[in-house]
Amino acid sequence: MPIMTKMRDNMPTILILLVVAFILTIVFEWGMDYLGLRSRGHDYVGVINDRKISYQEFIELVRQRSEQEKQQTGKEPDENALNRIRDEVWNSLVTQTLVDEEIKRLGIEVPDQEIVDWVKGDNPPEFLYKQFVDSNGVFNRAAYEAAIADPRNKEIWIQIEQGLKKQRMQEKLQSLILASVRVSESELFEKYVEQNLKLNMEYVFFDPNKYVTDEEVNLTDSDIEKYYNEHSAEFKTEPTRKLKYVKFKEVPSAKDTQSVISELEDVLDKVRSGADFMDLLNTYSETPTTEIFYKHGELSPTKEEKLFSAKVGDIVGPFSDFDGYHLVKILEERTGNDEFIRASHILINIQGNDSTSALNQAKEIIVKLKKGEDFATLAKQFSKDPGSAEKGGDLGWFGKGRMVKPFEDACYKAQLNQIVGPVKTQFGYHIIKVTGKSKREIKIADIVIPVKISSETRSLIYQNAQDFRYLAQENGFIKEAESVKYQILETPAFTKDGIIPGIGKHPALNRFAFEKDLGDISEVFPIPEGYGVFMISEIKKGGIRPLSDLKESLKPRVLREKKMQILAKKVMEIRKEISDADPLQKITEKHPDITVQTTGQFALISSIPGIGRDIKLIGVLNTLLPFTVSKPIEGTRGYYIVKILDKSGIDSTAYNAQKDMFKKQILQTKKSQFISEWLEQLKKNADIEDNRDMFFR
Questions:
Q1: DSSP for 67-107?
Q2: Contact assessment for residue 348 and residue 421, using Cβ atoms and an 8 Å cutoff
Q3: What is the pLDDT of residues 333-355, one digit of tens each?
Q4: Which of 171, 227, 475, 601 is most buried when burial is the number of CB atoms within 10 A of its CB?
Q5: CATH number of the domain that 507 lies in?
């Protein structure tokens, strides 16, 4: 069979590509040590317990991960993407190292024969199995075994087996740590009830602030002190730091901007010398051209102004817009079906119900316009539309459906340059001047080059930060920053492992803040948007906040707690006035100020109509018998007396049919949560030193 012969001939190539993909996956998930690629150098980007992560190892993993992303996206990762990839690789290395240590500590081993049996068995590893499935989905066992037996594949199989051994050890570790995770029958039933039980009930709600007055509560200092002592864990504070800092933003320089302008001017010179604009667009532009005909209002205001005033064949630019510098050729134009309007307006707000004053002011402005006063000047002086007043009232181009109806109708009926109004809308009175009407549409070729920061500019910014740090250490942080007129920023207080407000997650900066002393000045740290030089401006030790600081804020809490205690007794007395079978309305006969409310049908998993998601109340509802008045129930906001009118959705047949599904859902959730918590605990107990900031800026 020629096809099978060709497949056998190509088998080494297929397996090489396969093993490369598999090894890349294992490397990224597990690290590189098992391949023997770890450097023996002394430049370490970090230390995880006793394992030193060399720069060479780390950068190789980053390179491989970047290459994967490039293949997926079709473009080189930018600096932000590289920072993200470095974080992903570092986090993967931390996890892999700690997991490997646990595998060793627990004595987990995978004999070679176990891998051989797996590979040669009836259920080979999935990633291998897939490579030998034909177009009909049939596994070609003969071709698979031939590839295993082929001596040319010996070295490749060794690498695959090493990767599979890592995978199997991870599976064994996972099985071991998840062995205790179980789902009880009560959990299954609770899940079913939560998703299927529907209730309808009537209830009375007792608000402590309504049924207990402040005068009924004898609130003493000893009450507050007792509450403070009983809840002291709530008032525990962690050590915190504040940092003053100067930010050095990474932004393109004037030279970077001029470089882009010069590049586009060079393109323009080539066009003038006979070069084809479209060929140059394919060479220079980072944005491909389209076949779109643009209408008024579909381009940015800058492009709108420049391009719609040009003719077919004109080349406009270079000019700057929000996304970079543009050189644009007008390729075609046509007359569309839709008419677009350009208008300016002066808006006079109506204050309260006094529309007469606003109308009179609008009429006075119209008189000024008819006498020849400038529309734009009057718009800046009188218009209350903040979006257009500074632009002389100009609203730009718009089509039908973009403006409120009375305004739109007035614009489309008006003649060019005609003053219209006053036109009343929901916003007030408008005085309108139509400055343009057009059905023109244009097709363009746009060479756009964004202004990017150059390596030279980036190095200069970094050097400026270094220079400031040196001088700040010599002359003082505040003094030096003020002398060169740098803005001094300050972070709010943050904790040792917390996010630094304004900076984000930054382990190296956290370490500096908590390992150094008040007034110490940092190295230059990479931060969002550039670099920063920091000084420790505040050090606060952890502990329990003193009662004196909390006394006033605790009073409302203690007052409410005591009100709830008094309310509990009052509600119990009211409950005693009726029997279990009585309607709740009987309470209102003696207490006309009490209102009985009905929820209508609702699912236990959702919010209770009229009440919301009161967890305390929801936790009790499932236990109540229908048509029986409940005992007083303490909720989050007060007390309830409830009577279930209808309880449906509990079907034992349906429960048994869905039991396995619920079990899988709960088990998967519990396993994921358990693994996550286990890994977090490993990391918390580990000695991790992250020095990446010393290598990457």
A1: HHHHHHHSS---HHHHHHHHHHHHHHHHHHHHHHHHHHHTT
A2: no
A3: 999 888 999 999 999 988 877 78
A4: 227
A5: 3.10.50.40
* Domain identity same for 423 and 525: no
DSSP 8-state symbol, 39: -
CB 499 within 8 A of CB 240: no
Question: What is the Rg, in whole angstroms, of the alpha carbon atoms belonging to the chain?
Answer: 37
pLDDT per position as a tens digit, 642-689: 999 998 877 788 888 888 888 888 899 899 999 999 999 999 999 988
Q: Would you list the DSSP string of 468-481?
A: HHHHHHHH-HHHHH
Residue 431 lies in a domain: yes
- Domain check: are 469 and 561 in the same one? no
Residue 351 and residue 298 in one domain: yes
Asked if 396 contacts 416 with a C-beta cutoff of 8 angstroms, the reply is no
Cα 386 to chain centroid, rounded: 31
Which helix (H) or strand (E) is 646 found in, with range? strand 639-648
Q: Are residues 524 and 552 in the same domain?
A: no
Residues 151, 640 contacting (CB under 8 angstroms) = no
pTM: 0.59
Query: Measured between alpha carbons, how far is 525 from 538 in angstroms, rounded to an integer?
Result: 19
Domain boundary among 520, 541, 562: 541
Structurally, how many domains does the chain consist of?
4
User: Is 664 a domain residue?
Assistant: no
3-state secondary structure 474-525: HHCHHHHHHHCCCCCEECCCEECCCCECCCECCHHHHHHHHHCCCCCEEEEE
pLDDT at 3: 33
565 and 520 within one domain? no
Q: Are residues 282 and 407 in the same domain?
A: yes
Mean residue pLDDT of the chain comes to: 87
What's the average model confidence in pLDDT over 247-267?
A: 94
Same-domain check for residues 245 and 153: no
| Parent domain of 120 | 2-177
Whole-number pLDDT of residue 697: 57
User: Which one, of 665, 680, 674, 673, lies nearest residue 180 by Cα?
Assistant: 674
41 assigned to some structural domain: yes
Among 193, 187, 175, 197, smallest CA distance to 665 is for 187
pLDDT in tens, 281-335: 988 887 777 888 999 988 988 998 899 999 999 999 899 999 899 999 999 999 9
- Residue 560 exposed, middle or buried by CB count within 10 Å (0-12, 13-18, 19+): middle
Sign of CA dihedral 436, 440, 446, 450: positive
CA distance 569 to 574: 9
Q: Which residue has the tokens 């096809």?
A: 3
Which of the listed residues 386, 417, 449 is the one where a domain comes to its end? 449
Q: How far apart are CA 289 and CA 331, in angstroms?
A: 11
State both tokens at 153: 């594949």
DSSP state of 391: G
Residue 183 lies in a domain: no
Say if residue 299 is in the same domain as residue 437.
yes
133: DSSP letter: B
